[in-house]
Amino acid sequence: MKYIDEYRDARIARMLVEKIRDVVQEPWAIMEICGGQTHTILKYGLEELLPTNLTLLHGPGCPVCVTPLESIDRAIALAEMPDLILTSFGDMLRVPGSKDDLQSVKARGGDVRYVYSPLDAVALAERQPDKKVVFFAVGFETTAPANAMAVQAARKKGLKNFFLLTSQVRVPPAMELLLSSADHRIDAFLAAGHVCTIMGYHEYEPIAERHRVPIVVTGFEPIDILQGIFTAVEALQQQRYIIDNQYTRAVVRQGNLRAQKLLEEVFTIVDKKWRGIGVIPQSGLHLNDDYAEFDAERAFAVVQTTAQESSHCMAGLVLQGRVSPLQCSAFGRECTPEHPLGAPMVSSEGACAAYFRYGDHSESSD
């Protein structure tokens, strides 16, 4: 409880808000990368405490949200195959593909199961050698080491019926793409602490220098985020385009070297499509040739498709921080957590889900 109390202390929060108010002298826009941070901001009403000339933008920090329609459709096609078990984390089951979702396939009799770890899927494959078991591997660099461990565990056990359907993405190339747009609004970033726990923050240093934006590695509690905002604004006012590590209790510059070595052994860096954004160069991780036998895309003859988002859904613009969920005409009407048009409404880290759960809907677009 001491940890929770310390990072949710209202007295410290008020002090940080006053420090932010004192230091802000001109309009700034700060983008948080992580969807977990977005939910903290909305849940605790942090944005309402900040000065009106300081804007928080919500970035593409939800790996479920940026998983492309084609990958969802591929998972659905696999789940419909006989003698195949499709496993995934629970928040993927209701994310809409182009026509359907995994929960609907499960309701029709498909063997779709949610697990708490990819190693659970390995154990399932070991228990049921007559079934093919596919784990839908989605996430940023944070989840990639566990997925790599699962593949290595399957090899050590001699399993021939375990596969990964991989949709792993990397954060720095997405930040680079957003900043490369001529009309972007981003003055500073709050970087995702859990990603940096694995990868460190040395990859962000050239981005900050090249684009002249401060980047603050930030945790997920209210005090973490307010301290990160204060540090970012102070750097902006002083024109210091640096990396600052607010999340020192978990992050060091070089990151987790053993985890990085594991990623290098199992994955290769590839260009990757992000839902609502498009292909981002060098932004994906895919199983390398040494582990090709575990690659579900190579193992199963699934037709490669292209799919279009709903014309009523503005999720792509939300993920780029160009609009607020409240500016989408479908928000809270055609698009709700029960009937989502886009992934940000159904994902537990999605910005639209955060606004629906914690926000005031009275300002939504008519």
List the helices and strands and how they pair.
Elements: H1 2-7, H2 10-23, E1 28-32, H3 35-43, H4 46-49, E2 54-58, H5 63-66, H6 69-79, E3 84-88, H7 102-107, E4 112-114, H8 118-127, E5 132-139, H9 144-156, E6 162-169, H10 171-180, E7 188-192, H11 193-199, H12 205-211, E8 215-218, H13 222-237, E9 243-245, H14 257-266, E10 267-274, E11 278-287, H15 296-299, H16 315-319, H17 343-346, H18 351-358
Helix pairs in contact: 2-13, 3-18, 8-9, 9-14
Description:
The protein is an alpha/beta fold and 366 residues long. The protein folds into 2 domains: 1-312, HypD, alpha/beta domain 2 (Rossmann fold, 3-Layer(aba) Sandwich), CATH 3.40.50.11740; 315-359, no CATH class. The chain contains 18 helices and 11 strands. It has helices spanning 2-7, 10-23, 35-43, 46-49, 63-66, 69-79, 102-107, 118-127, 144-156, 171-180, 193-199, 205-211, 222-237, 257-266, 296-299, 315-319, 343-346, 351-358, and strands at 28-32, 54-58, 84-88, 112-114, 132-139, 162-169, 188-192, 215-218, 243-245, 267-274, 278-287. Strands 4-3-5-6-11-10 form a 6-stranded mixed β-sheet, with helices on both faces. Strands 2-1-7-8-9 form a 5-stranded parallel β-sheet. The longest helix is centred in the middle third of the chain and has 16 residues, at 222-237. The radius of gyration is 21 Å and the shape is globular.
